[in-house]
């Protein structure tokens, strides 16, 4: 279960537009999304959840151009190869060896 603000954040910060998977039936990947209602009863500790939405779809599109939940781990924008190579070249070693 996710909150609506998290669904919006995932859609804006990854290549996965969760909103395009709005569904009426479950599938391979299922996400229930709720938003908080307007009323919060502090004395009772109750938080109202508004009506939920179901987002459902395949985990992978098997190399087809169709969207899938695997898009979450893909970059929304791919930089030019030269930028990637430059960042690798300018980066220091990931480990250090100490010789006693």
Could you walk me through the main structural features you see in this protein, from its secondary elements to its overall organization?
It is a single chain. The protein starts with a strand and ends in a 10-residue tail after the last helix. The protein is α+β, with helices and mostly antiparallel strands. The strands form two sheets. It has a four-stranded mixed sheet with strand order 1-3-6-2. Strands 4-5 form a two-stranded antiparallel ribbon. The protein is extended. The mean pLDDT is 79. The chain has two helices and six strands; from the N terminus they run E-H-E-E-E-E-E-H. The protein has one domain (2-89). The longest helix is centred in the N-terminal third of the chain and has 10 residues, at 4-13.
Shape: extended
Structural class: alpha+beta
Order of helices and strands: EHEEEEEH
Low-confidence stretches: none
- What portion of residues belong to β-strands? 25-35%
Number of domains: 1
DSSP summary: helix tally: 2
Overall pLDDT confidence: 79
This entry's quaternary arrangement is: single chain
The main β sheet shows up as: 4 strands, mixed
């Amino acid at each position: 279960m996710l909150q609506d603000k998290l669904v919006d954040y995932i859609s804006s910060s990854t290549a996965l537009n969760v909103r395009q998977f709005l569904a009426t039936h479950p599938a391979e990947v299922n996400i229930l999304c709720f938003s908080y209602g307007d009323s919060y009863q502090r004395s009772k500790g109750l938080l109202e959840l508004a009506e939920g939405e179901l987002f459902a779809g395949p985990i992978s599109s098997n190399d087809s151009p169709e969207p899938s939940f695997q898009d979450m781990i893909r970059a929304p924008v791919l930089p030019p190869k030269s930028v990637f190579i430059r960042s690798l070249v300018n980066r220091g070693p990931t480990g250090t060896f100490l010789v006693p």
